[in-house]
Amino acid sequence: MTEFTPLASAFGGALIGLSAVLLLAINGRIAGISGISSAILPPWGGRLREGDIGWRIAFVVGLMAAPILVQAVSGEPIQQTVSSNVALMVIAGLVTGFGSVYGGGCTSGHGVCGMSRLSMRSITATLTFMATGFLTVFVMRHVVGG
Amino acid sequence: MKSFAGFLLGLLFGVGLVISGMSDPAKVLNFLDLFGTWDPSLAFVMGGAVVVTFVGYRLVLNQPQPKLSEVFHLPTKKDIDGQLLTGAALFGVGWGLGGFCPGPAFTAVPLMSDGIIAFFPALLIGMWAGKMAPGLTAARA
User: Fold this and answer.
1) Is the pLDDT confidence value at B138 over 80?
2) Chain B 70-99, CB below 8 Å of chain A: which residues?
3) Which domain holds residue B35?
4) How far A22 CA sits from the closest chain B CA (Å)?
């Protein structure tokens, strides 16, 4: 069980939205994490020459700094329950990484930014990954596990 | 300046993920567990984010250009093709297995759980493979 946190979740979501709005306003970019981070990986094409890598690295460093900042301010450790099944997590990582880049976005790029632009591609992608996500958890928890 | 903005906005995005509870894979998996220990919090995260972004994007796109860039870099593809559906379907499977999408995976790195140490390098390899897979490099150029 995890506690249902509508207020904290909606507020945190609003901060995510604010970050996405400001990233478009300032850098002219969509806040899709799979897109931002995968472009740091080779091949770079013309990105190095165009100076299109530095802000991406800075963005993911900011993401990684966030839990440290929250812990320092709140003085409490961050709640996290992560599976320690190494084989499962390796497969999950490979499939998540491949799928998000191959499909042109993840929860942030398609789910938040694309849906906000009323993009049919993003709405379709979001419905698709939600459906397979629900199905996967159903199979893992209620068919395989239990 | 673009990098400084990038850092601060990554930090803001990450703080949003942590406050919303989405940095905890257990909350994500419970959202996806409709017929079990369902936790609807993720819908409120998406709702909060989409409302702010929907309104904010309209205000921003009324401006002639971004502050630190010549143009707004917006996706131009319109077609719903096999690649979009395949990628999204696989992404959902991976998300359901590990409880991490890419954003929360980054925020989990400094917490150094056994799971993220296994997940994170695999995520990067998967992303690289997604870039190299047929049809993608040209489409994303």
Assistant:
1) no
2) 70-75, 77-80, 83-99
3) 1-74
4) 7
How far does A115 lie from chain B, in Å, by closest CA? 7
Q: What is the pLDDT of residues B70-110, one digit of tens each?
A: 999 999 998 999 999 999 999 999 999 999 999 999 999 99
Same domain, residue pair B61 and B93 = no
Asked if B103 contacts B13 with a C-beta cutoff of 8 angstroms, the reply is yes
Give pLDDT, residue A71: 97
| Inter-chain touch A107–B80, beta carbons under 8 Å | no
- When CB atoms are compared, the residue of B48, B101, B141 closest to A17 is B48
Length of chain B: 141
B138 shares its domain with B99: yes
pLDDT at B136: 45
Low-confidence residues of chain A, pLDDT below 50? none
Quick check: A138 and B41 CB within 8 A? no
Confidence tier at B135 by pLDDT (50, 70, 90) = low
Cβ pair A138:B48 closer than 8 A: no
